[in-house]
Amino acid sequence: MDVIVGGGVAGLSVAWRLARAGRPVTVVDPAPASGASHAAAGMLAPVSEVTFTEEPLLRLGAASLARWPAFAAELAADAGLSSPADLGYRADGTLDVAFSADDLAALDETAGFMEKLGLRVQRLTGRECRRLEPMLAPSVRGGLLAPDDAWVDPRRVTAALLTALEWLGVAVVRARAGELVRDERGVRGVRLSAGAGDSWVRHGGPRARQDDLEVRQGGRGASRGGASRDGSYPEEIGAERVVLAAGAWSGGLAPVPVRPVKGQIMRLRSPEPLLGRCVRGMVHGQPVYLVPRGDGELVVGATQEELGFDTRVTAGGLYELLRDARELVPGVTELEVADVVAGLRPGTPDNLPLIGPGGEPGLFLATGHHRGGVLLAPLTAAILLAGMTAPGARAAPSAADVTAHRGPAALAGPADPVDQTDPAGPAGRMRPAERADPVDPAGPAGRMRPAERVDPADPAGRTSPAGRVPAARVDPAGRVGGDALVGPDAAVARDLVALCSPGRFGS
Ligand SMILES: Cc1cc2nc3c(=O)[nH]c(=O)nc-3n(C[C@H](O)[C@H](O)[C@H](O)COP(=O)(O)OP(=O)(O)OC[C@H]3O[C@@H](n4cnc5c(N)ncnc54)[C@H](O)[C@@H]3O)c2cc1C
What we know:
Blueprint: E1 2-5, H1 9-20, E2 25-28, H2 36-39, E3 43-44, H3 55-78, E4 94-98, H4 101-116, E5 122-125, H5 126-132, E6 142-146, E7 150-151, H6 154-167, E8 171-173, E9 176-183, E10 186-193, H7 210-213, E11 236-238, E12 241-244, E13 259-269, E14 278-283, E15 286-292, E16 297-301, H8 315-328, E17 336-347, E18 354-357, E19 363-367, H9 377-389, H10 408-412, E20 479-480, E21 483-484, H11 490-500
Helix pairs in contact: 1-6, 1-9, 3-6, 3-9
The protein binds flavin-adenine dinucleotide.
């Protein structure tokens, strides 16, 4: 079994991709989707975010952006949503605007750099900017349109990921991982630690038993190395591999150079959408952006502060955001304040993420995504899926699995990670919304499990082999289960994998 520590957008995306590929997975997080992913604006904007010193990050971002349409479509289907638009996914570009002659000169320079990199950008006059976005301030002197940039609503994305995981039978254990469990062979699992009033276990999945579904309080009665004496929860969860995806908190569990970078952000509400696309600008030397949602919400962000694990929302932070946003779009001050929040970005010394083997057997990393974890989610999941399912990527033979939880393989019988590829993926499976939910006091136990669903790719209409769920196969072009890692060129994929490799910090 693979255990994912951290249920933010990174951990949940990895868990979803692994589970879809047939790997038994458990996610451990005391409060899934409550970290930086809850705060994030959701810009998928590698082009407009590019700086002269961050070309490698741009390459990662562009590769992940290219994966977003398929990622969003598959996630929407697995979560029972009618389309990617239900995730707030839109691909209408970003407009970067300038106020002063200096701003304009800087934008011009950026445009030249982007063009040199072969990125699609369009220089606009002030009037052209206002034609695109009539609510822009009259003082806008010019701008740069990056038509390929997109955005999503990260809260909807993480909610959809949790729904998809539940459907796939993935346990989400609502507890904190206190430490990694190691033996002479490497990382063997995680030891859970309770916070006051923690709900220890919330277990879902099509075949979860009623006792798995119970939510128990506190940690009393736990026995070392196994389920608690009363059988309510395990103190440790054994794993073949552990994926550390605990965002800004990752450094508390393994020696990774990840630090918290505070970001304050606000959500405003207007009866009608004020903007048609993301708008960004530099005001008083500070970057500010506005991200519209289809329902009239307008996200204004974000501060960048090096204050450790401080998540207080401050008057000064909000004042600066509103002051600068008003320079771009004066109408924002009329809007209702819906939400203010501070999140902690998981920053690294070079701003690149840590994705891949974690320097000791059994440990993988999916952390350090800093400003771009939402953008990089599809690429993160693809890199880890390829790395963890590649031949030879297996950890040392597993000790007895001490978990009391049941992932998909435990539910569906032993999964063979090598030879059960379902080339059609789960596209033909029933979506949650279509599932018949039997009136069953035992909860969702009567639902069809993935292994019982009819494989649409099978002309004979047979079900997948009993007791098996589809697993990933990596083909020579670097594709995983028919899912291209990054375009058709495996060398490019390897190159990107190298950029994120935790090995660059000697871990
Ligand atoms: C204000 C703001 C705006 C942003 N805007 C954007 C944007 O527009 N586009 C973009 O791509 N990115 C954006 N980001 C960055 C993005 O939010 C992050 O890069 C991304 O959310 C990181 O995801 P994560 O899953 O690694 O971390 P998180 O979302 O922080 O998740 C980490 C999870 O780990 C859990 N955890 C912590 N410790 C433990 C433990 N010991 N045991 C178990 N679980 C644990 C936490 O409960 C949490 O759920 C923004 C960030 C902020 C703060």
